[in-house]
Amino acid sequence: SSEPPDATPCTGNIDVGAAIAEVRSFDLDARACYEELLRVDPTRSLAAQVTIVVAGSGAVAGVEIAATINAPAFESCLSSTMARMQFPPVTGGSCAVLSVPYSFSPERVN
């Protein structure tokens, strides 16, 4: 669920620049999750929409992943990666929601 445990809607704000920098700092970790998928299917491309619920402290309170393929191991890996993120404290509410698109494809070597 994209709502915190107390079911209060997430209406807070988070510094967008800092949030993007934090997400991007985990790009290699996210790619590593995808690389594991490639071991099973070397030609598989994948897109995923990740919803991150950020608690008031800036800690990750929840992660939801909607992927274009059924890839539970990838989703579990990516969820664990996202859970390690630490964002700036939320302002104007008890939590905030971030939506992060990912797109992965096998790297072509010519």
Q: Kindly estimate the percentage of residues that lie in beta strands according to DSSP.
A: 25-35%
Please count the helical segments: 3
Tell me the radius of gyration. Answer: 15 Å
Order of helices and strands: HHEEHE
Characterize the quaternary organization of these chains: single chain
Can you tell me the overall shape?
A: elongated
Characterize the structure shown:
By secondary structure, this protein is an alpha+beta fold. 32% of the residues lie in helices and 25% in strands. It has three helices and three strands. It has a three-stranded antiparallel beta sheet with strand order 2-1-3, with helices on one face. Helix 2 runs antiparallel to helix 3. The protein is elongated. The N terminus is likely disordered.
Question: Which helices and strands occur, and which strands form pairs?
Answer:
Blueprint: H1 16-24, H2 27-40, E1 46-55, E2 60-67, H3 72-83, E3 95-104
Antiparallel strand pairs: 1-2, 1-3
Helix pairs in contact: 2-3
